């Protein structure tokens, strides 16, 4: 009898302990049962997860604009867990169920594809250019990446000469001017061209300086009519046959070389620049007077590694100076070279290297955006990223007679030949 009572008492104690434990677990907040360190791997704050596990998280309690992606993840990953949780009885082991569900979620999460880390390998010229060639497809990939094409197959020679004042730009085939400045411009950049015409392009009225803009062609009838009217008024726009676009800048530069070779073959120096540059023409003329080299390109040089572990030097395309004796060779050789989109690398790098043309560093070719102080402007040949309205201010500072600056020689000592 004593043993029976003892057994009943022990059973009663065990049952009481089980019931009490179940009640305690059931009364605890479910957010505390789930390990805190895993909450943010699902998405959202700890408060959001507490609402989620209690079934109170919905679109009204969530910011739809900020958390829409996380809410979709919650619906696909967590709601099945909630349904399983609601189906179990109060007497089940809640902690074990949650731990098992969490392990299943983590296992599925580990199977998701991870983003590839960015490669830190040096970028070679060939890989850069093959991925950014001209005439890209609609998806942005180059058709010449795996099948290089000679430039001669892409370039259409000749120019739309109607309206061009050739004699004003280059007198007597270049016998008079010692400097020809050719400015590549997009067809829609009327304000950029007008700002240059009214500022530093005034030097084009000198007998020893010629200036013109270089553009491509367009299929837009209205724009084409507007360009024809503009050229009728100013006569300073050289227009090639290649479609005017950023990816065809190389073709535009080749058009520049062809026009110079055809109409201004005797000019001593050619500056290739762009319509968002400010050119200090007096400083450039001083530079020319100091440098008397042949077969040379002057500018701000950059070196880049090729696939053959060699370094290729080229001039930054915002502004670089060519000696007149290399124009014909550059034009002909560029047509017989595989096409590349980056015109400065193509012309002053690959083609110039194949012709053994020297590239010389000239520090006064800044080709970057600098602090626009009067003295810094006067000691610099080329400044990049200049808005049309800024051209007027820089022009005023360049000519202000009240500004006194310490004179800096125009790169009296040539840089090392590259």
TrEMBL record:
<keyword id="KW-0735">Signal-anchor</keyword>
<protein>
    <recommendedName>
        <fullName>Hexosyltransferase</fullName>
        <ecNumber>2.4.1.-</ecNumber>
    </recommendedName>
</protein>
<dbReference type="GO" id="GO:0006493">
    <property type="term" value="P:protein O-linked glycosylation"/>
</dbReference>
<keyword id="KW-0328">Glycosyltransferase</keyword>
<feature type="compositionally biased region" description="Polar residues">
    <location>
        <begin position="125"/>
        <end position="141"/>
    </location>
</feature>
<keyword id="KW-0808">Transferase</keyword>
<dbReference type="Pfam" id="PF01762">
    <property type="entry name" value="Galactosyl_T"/>
</dbReference>
<dbReference type="InterPro" id="IPR002659">
    <property type="entry name" value="Glyco_trans_31"/>
</dbReference>
<feature type="compositionally biased region" description="Basic residues">
    <location>
        <begin position="108"/>
        <end position="121"/>
    </location>
</feature>
<dbReference type="GO" id="GO:0000139">
    <property type="term" value="C:Golgi membrane"/>
</dbReference>
<keyword id="KW-0325">Glycoprotein</keyword>
<keyword id="KW-0333">Golgi apparatus</keyword>
<dbReference type="GO" id="GO:0016758">
    <property type="term" value="F:hexosyltransferase activity"/>
</dbReference>
<feature type="region of interest" description="Disordered">
    <location>
        <begin position="105"/>
        <end position="142"/>
    </location>
</feature>
<keyword id="KW-0472">Membrane</keyword>
<keyword id="KW-0812">Transmembrane</keyword>
<keyword id="KW-1133">Transmembrane helix</keyword>
<comment type="similarity">
    <text>Belongs to the glycosyltransferase 31 family.</text>
</comment>
